[in-house]
Amino acid sequence: MLNLPPWQRLLDGHFGAPKPGQYRAQPEDFIVDEQLDFTPEAHGEHLWLRLEKRHQTTLDVVKSVSRLCNVTPKDIGYSGMKDRVAVTRQWVSVHLPGREAPAELSASLDALGIKVLEQARHPRKLKRGVHRTNHFTLRLSGEAVQADDFEQRWQALCTHGVANYFGPQRFGPGGRNLQRAEALLAKGWRKRDDRQGMMLSTARSFLFNELLSARLADGSWCQPLPGDTLMLDGTQSVFSVDEVDDSLVARAGELDIHPTGVLWGVGERAKQQITAYELRLLVQHPALCEGLEKSGVKRAQRALRIRLLAPQLRREHEAVELSFALPRGSFATAVVSELIEHPDFV
After folding, report:
1. What are the distances in angstroms from CA 178 to CA 169, 266, 287, 289?
2. Which end of the chain has fewer CB within 10 Å, C or N?
3. CA-to-CA dists, residue 73 to 63, 67, 95, 100, 115, angstroms
4. CB neighbour class for 316 (10 Å; exposed up to 12, middle 13-18, buried from 19)
5. How far is Cα 285 from Cα 28, in angstroms, rounded to an integer?
6. Domain 162-306 homologous superfamily, CATH
7. Which region holds residue 268: left if phi is over 0, alpha if psi is between -120 and 50, else beta?
8. For helices 286-295 and 176-187, what crossing angle results, to 10°?
9. pLDDT in tens, 86-101
10. Is the pLDDT of residue 274 over 90?
11. What value does the mean pLDDT take over residues 109-120?
12. What distance lies between CA 304 and its chain's CA centroid?
């Protein structure tokens, strides 16, 4: 049975471990606003709704909207899964060809704690993973935010970037999702046992975090190495390097490019040779690696480092409000875990 290990934090080597703190004391302490880089076209078969939810999952919203609009959940589109213990805003689409939404839809959703902020028609369903960023407004409190070095820790993240860990919510309470993923892959993954693919995502996330922790430990997490696959900042564009020259080192220092780690699966590597870090994963976690390959999930790359976009800090009497944006797929808890000690991050 697998347990979550204590993955290496970025700032501990310089500042030591952070002091205890609180976040998400209430949903309003964790606000997420999903950002698209386009707007609905005001015509078409799909009704797009920009919704605000509180203390609900995205799938809870999908079920409510589909029931009220008398459609199936498959007729609902959304880009990203949003946190439950939070106030989150995101677009969803509803396939309503040739008919209008129920007149009472907004009122019915409001009664369920879901506010309709905007609505418009569009020709196409909202697809997964099309949003560019998520904007976060977080309220932290406790001993950590009163510490003398808190703002120095924050500034270090703003200057040098953040280790792009998958957050603890990916693994479930006590790492139980990871244990389920291990059991499912051991007997052979089948889609009917994992309709949303969450167990595959959990296993890949664990292996990625293991690799990132190893590169944090040896100091190479933000430095290109020979054989690395690098990602251009703000994009999913990648390229591989045989050798590392001064220009690559300079670009990495400017946060223009980032080393990547593997999201394990089948498919050719950009370079034929396996990296030492991937070999370590194969040796330490053979069942997970082999199970993922047998499942047929495609190999991909994820940046080891992310840049905080438009970061701001505002002090309150006994708390701190942080605001910033992250690329889609990155976790605000990767930022918070560098600033406060909390049971979620143990």
Report:
1. 11, 20, 13, 13
2. N
3. 6, 8, 10, 17, 19
4. exposed
5. 39
6. TruD, insertion domain (3.30.2340.10)
7. beta
8. 60
9. 999 999 999 999 999 9
10. no
11. 97
12. 12
The average pLDDT across 61-71 equals 98
Maximum average pLDDT range among 154-158, 194-198, 342-346: 154-158
User: What residue has token string 């690559």?
Assistant: 248
CB atoms within 10 A of CB 31: 20
pLDDT of 271 over the 60 cut = no
Query: What pLDDT, on a 0 to 100 scale, did the predictor assign at position 2?
Result: 47
Domain spans of the chain? Answer: 38-122, 162-306
Could you list the active site residues? Answer: 83
pLDDT over threshold 60, residue 62: yes
- Dihedral (CA of 51, 202, 338, 329) sign: negative
Question: Running DSSP on this structure, what letter comes out for residue 246?
Answer: H
- The answer to whether 265 and 256 are in contact (CB under 8 A) is no
- pLDDT category, 171, cuts 50, 70, 90? very high
> Of 62, 68, 66, 58, nearest to 111 (Cα)?
68
Q: What are the structure tokens assigned to 83, written together? A: 């946190």
Q: Which of 34-38, 53-57, 272-276 has the lowest mean pLDDT?
A: 272-276
Do 162-306 and 38-122 fall under one CATH topology? no
> What 3-state DSSP class applies to 295?
helix
Report yes or no: 150 and 117 within 8 Å, Cβ to Cβ: no
Tokens linked to 266: 């089948």
CB atoms within 10 A of CB 233: 18
Q: In the predicted model, is pLDDT for residue 201 greater than 60?
A: yes
Check: CB of residue 142 under 8 Å from CB of residue 22: yes
CATH homologous superfamily for the domain 38-122: TruD, catalytic domain (3.30.2350.20)
